[in-house]
Amino acid sequence: MTITKRPRPIGEHAAVISGVGQSQVGRRLYRDPLDLTVEAALAAIADAGLTRDDIDGISTYPGAMSIPPGFSGVGVVELQEALRLNLDWFAGGVELPGQLGSVANAVAAVAAGLADHVLCFRTVWEASAQGDRGRAAVTTGGGGGGGYRASGFLQWTLPYGAASAANWIGMMAQRHMHEFGTTREQLGQVALNGRANAALNPKAIYRDPMTMDDYLNARLVSWPLGLYDCDVPADGSTVVIVSRADSAPDLRKEPIRIEAMGTALHGRPSWDQFDDLTTMALRDASTMMWDRTDLTPADVDVAELYDGFTFITLCWLEALGFCEHGEGGPYLEAGRPLASGGGSLPLNTNGGQLSGGRLHGYGFLHEACTQLWGEGGDRQVAGDPEVAIAAAGGGPLASSFLLTRR
User: Fold this and answer.
1) For 250-269, what is each residue's pLDDT tens digit?
2) N or C of the chain: less Cβ packing under 10 Å?
3) Contact assessment for residue 365 and residue 373, using Cβ atoms and an 8 Å cutoff
4) Do 232 and 354 form a contact (C-beta atoms < 8 A)?
């Protein structure tokens, strides 16, 4: 991986992560999403040693939206009203570089002096929205028949039955298999790693042991992706507080430093028409992040990499330089990122979204901070980790954060 260094910027260094919080996480909790959000928000504010009066910014993804059901449901104005906040800056929207783009927005706002302490949140209640009808209840595009008319890129994919990201990512995984010989067993290592780590996370959805036979024998969803290649719909809210770096003396604990961010998109903004279907926008976000730091992949102690599908994690490992492009399969097969298998890179230490639950990106940033603060409990990484990566997004959406206690 060739990295071209630019002059060291100061933008990210004007902001820190001062606190994190998370609500109850589970399947079909049937709690109001605003209730979950307030629970996580109050926990994060207390974790930072702040009060509601200190919060002068809110940032969220994707904002309030009712379709697809359970994908959001809570926006800026609902949370501001519930917490009675006086805001100097706020933002929320779908067109961001991945879910963590809302955190990048907050960092930029703090660096620009628009706010001192920004509450960033992501709330999902997809499991409750599904009820007892499974994925069919929330499938993109609604049910069949009648007068439904697709728009945007779905007008080109729905006629072929490709309504889900499982179809689109499955196509990319097939291309990677064709070009590099990647196998299902290699993808399965991501799922097995997540399940093993989830066993140590009391909030994880699935904690029972899983074998490679369990993985391979599960029903197929969209070749080559099976049931355990796909993340688990859940209910929960995660909050991260982004604060001014010079506010550190007033915080409850030493904050996490934001060493570098990556938010770039240089390829086509498309799930199925990207210039290289063996990778995604995460290729560009990863390159940008490394361009903005003197650290290298060898410095990373913990990696929390998006696993909406197992193949996305493989792509992040390649794009971030933990292995070369096309070598993600052998890298996983050798067990290199699996601490339990003697590897040197703890990966998705909370179980990720495959077993821990689909908190849609924010869970990875929460876990990275938890590990750096040494608050991981039974799943805490040994050796006092100092550098972590949190990365989220797939397809044309991607953003990454390099965090450090140094």
Assistant:
1) 999 999 999 999 999 998 99
2) C
3) no
4) yes
